[in-house]
UniProtKB/TrEMBL annotation:
It comes from the Bacteria. Signal peptide: none annotated. Transmembrane segments: none annotated. It holds the Pfam family Amidase. This is Amidase. Residues 26-445 form the Amidase domain. Belongs to the amidase family. It comes from Streptomyces plumbiresistens.
Amino acid sequence: MTSDRSAGLAESARALADGEVTSRSLVEAALARIEATQTSLNAFRIVRTEAALAEAEAADRELAAGVRKPLLGVPVAVKDDMDVAGEPTAFGCRGEFPPVAKDGEAVRRLRAAGAVIVGKTNTCEFGQWPFTEGPAFGATRNPWSTEHTPGGSSGGSAAAVAAGLVPAALGSDGAGSVRIPASWTHLIGIKPQRGRISTWPRGESFQGITVNGTLARTVADAALLLDAAAGNHDLDPHRPPAVDALQATRRDPGRLRIALSLKPPFTALPARLQPEVRARVVQLAEELSDLGHIVEEADPPYGQIGLTFVPRATAGLAERVREAPFPTLLDRRTRDAARLGGLLGGVPLRAARRAEAVLHRRIGTFFTTYDVILAPTTAAPPPRIGALLGLGGLATDRAMIAACPYAWPWNVLGWPGVNVPAGFVGGGLPVGAQLLGPANSEPLLISLAAQLEARLRWHTAWPPEHAVTDSPAA
């Protein structure tokens, strides 16, 4: 095995265990790719060069001693909303942040599995928007077209994986922030059940709507990273029963009843599915039908689910803003949304939290008729860099809802969803589709995604080398 960008997570772990390659060589190659693309892609906020090389050498000593762990010596990245001991956690914000003392639980579990954390990836300010840009770090760009965003808020992780800088990365998803960048960079993005991957040192992130998830080029790699990061801190409030995600990739999903849902859920602002994206999702539905599944057009009974999302999202943001060490440096849109969160943080927030059980029952009945929902991940392909950065608050909300109206309901519900690549639209821009299920349905969704992957082999497509390595025009 070589240490080029095509080596996946599972393949890297196997080659390390078999002695075909060293951790140091893999980590050195990853660091070299990161350095070579930082001017063109800008995927990383922090690169842990010295620490990662030291950890790689320690992994090599363990491997030589016969130690075996699922990811021993494999380089991975995490989003910069996750605590890595000795590094700051800026979460897309401007200012100098102190290093944290301890790993967050998800990072601790990755290290326990043997992974080497090569760096922390860029994210927009407090993960609010489906683009990864800001004055703190500039613009993170899409490997498929550096004139376009990779999405957000886990855009740095998506760009890093899509370009082959690392074989897989952790992101977080509060309104589609794993699934949206996965769709716009031709990746698998797993948003797991709430609590599957701990968000500790926060028992809940953004009032429970945000969860940690995985990004990878293949279903098996995304599942392997999920298994490695999954688990709970003793004080976590949400503790779902364990699943074996990697085993699910080897399982036939059986003949499923699949609802093709193309109608955007309730939004206060207009949203329309662009015809070229619709065509790619419908084509995916036809592939599922050819695989023997029963596919029918049907929409879940969402009702006015959006009324429960806004209080949780804005109250959660208000909590982060209150903790921010440099509040005057925050984007005006952040401060305005946090003020709204302060107003909604009492009775409206409590009502929104209570409504979740009602929504579980109502939307849960849909899964007595259907096993899985297939829906667009976004309504549009990725926007150009800068298209949303300078907008005011309402204009940003309009643009965000127009492009991304489909992902957020599953954050309110706390249930799993998996983005799968749906192909390319004008100019070679990737788009994706979501497989959505009820509580704790990751094994079913992952097995279905793996079946599609075996048929469509989307992981064989790579961004053009010149787009990854050339600096964008000023």
